[in-house]
Inverse folding.
């Protein structure tokens, strides 16, 4: 198979790239940072830049490469207050997590094989009610799920699959960033000094024990290879978040308020 992976320089994308290469598939890796791997075709590219993506498209077409799967993994995280955050930071996160994914699929669809698949790495939080200070990331992933379903409806007309994968906590720079991001929030916020300190403790509890990227990559590889995959896969969910989201929104808010204002 020919498999294109965004966010391939580190974390989940890098682990999946190596998993696919080890199974003798041809991999095209895309990342804004340099990808250290000489066993695949790599591009240094900002996925929010249409011209850069068109250059990749033209090179794939010149090599007559048809993609059996486009795997969208590239993304960023930000812990911040919705009423304090720099609007440019808010826009950047949405540009990468949502619009960047949409742009990759829009531009590179021309190279997708007749029975090709598009895989979208979302997050377990996409189906849950947001927690405070994680709202912007949650908004981006919930919107990404809506996009995936809309794209699924369109491509299903041609028997092409769109698969959403919702992982829980994974041992990557992104997940570690949720801890350091909360620490930065504690230092920078003017409105939520006390609450953000309590939230830092809460985040470590809700995250649970992270799954190694290599283990997630093996699961993702099996999903990509399925002839009849499910539309949505949730992998390694947080039990704490699952239990919290069983409760009505009013009770969730009361619990979080009690924990953060104590």
């Amino acid at each position: 198979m020919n498999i294109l992976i965004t966010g391939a320089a580190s974390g989940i994308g890098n682990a999946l790239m190596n998993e696919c290469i080890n199974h003798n598939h041809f991999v095209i890796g895309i990342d804004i940072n340099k990808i250290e791997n000489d066993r695949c075709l790599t591009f240094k590219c900002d996925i929010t830049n249409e011209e850069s993506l068109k250059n990749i498209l033209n090179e794939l077409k010149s090599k007559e490469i048809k993609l059996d799967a486009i795997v969208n993994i590239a993304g960023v995280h930000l812990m911040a207050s919705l009423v304090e955050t720099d609007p440019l930071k808010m826009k950047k996160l949405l540009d990468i997590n949502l619009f960047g994914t949409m742009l990759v699929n829009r531009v590179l669809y021309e190279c997708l094989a007749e029975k090709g698949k598009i895989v979208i790495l979302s997050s377990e939080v996409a189906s849950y009610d947001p927690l405070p200070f994680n709202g912007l990331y949650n908004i981006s992933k919930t919107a990404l799920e809506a996009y995936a379903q809309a794209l699924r409806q369109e491509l299903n007309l041609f028997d092409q699959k769109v698969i959403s994968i919702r992982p829980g906590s994974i041992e990557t720079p992104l997940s570690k960033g949720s801890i350091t991001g909360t620490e930065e929030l504690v230092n920078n916020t003017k409105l939520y000094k006390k609450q953000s300190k309590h939230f830092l403790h809460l985040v470590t509890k809700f995250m649970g024990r992270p799954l190694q990227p290599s283990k997630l990559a093996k699961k993702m590889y099996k999903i990509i290879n399925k002839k009849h995959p499910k539309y949505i896969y949730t992998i390694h969910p947080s039990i704490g978040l699952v239990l919290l989201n069983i409760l009505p929104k009013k009770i969730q808010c009361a619990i979080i308020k009690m924990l953060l204002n104590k």
Notes: The chain has one domain: 2-170+211-239. The radius of gyration is 19 Å.
